[in-house]
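During the no-cost extension, the postdoctoral fellow (Dr. R.K.) reprocessed legacy sequence entries with the updated structure-token encoder. One reprocessed record is reproduced below for audit purposes.
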Amino acid sequence: MSKSQAKAPAPQFFGAEAFQSQENTTVRWLAGAGALINCRGTILMIDPFLKGFDMPLLVEAPVKTEDVPHVDALLITHSDNDHFSWDTCRDLAPVCDSCHAPRYVAGLAAKLGLPSTGHEINDTFSVGPLNVTLTPADHAWQNDFPGAADRVFQKEDFCGFWLDTPDGTIS
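Re-encoded structure tokens follow.
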């Protein structure tokens, strides 16, 4: 039995059609933990990681940052660079209306020029027809490895997102 890296199938590439108004909600995989959600023309990107990683990637991103015409909101779960890509977020800043994340991450996003709002766990906010709630996540692995980070991470520095859309729930 050969040992090899598990690899997901390549994402399905898409273009401008993914950002157009539509009558329902569509979820598209951005690779990694990322997703593009088009809810009746309201566009969310969760942990968009389209470029700027410090290691080779196993799959290519399905859309280039320069091909993203508009994002109503970026949702960022935490500051690890495979979830919060500084290069991706910097490139999306001119076409992004808002960024929502835990308070610590929102502060980092603001430094990239994103219009950022920091939230506490269990906070709820709306983006168009979607209601978004931050859910708890336990991901402070850096605290177990001295020197892995320049700070001690708190439980409120990480989150998941629960989305209620007119068409159903995404968690």
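The longest helix spans residues 103-111. The beta strands are 25-31, 34-39, 42-46, 73-75, 99-102, 116-119, 124-127, 130-136, 159-165, 168-170. The remaining legacy entries will be reprocessed before the final report is submitted.
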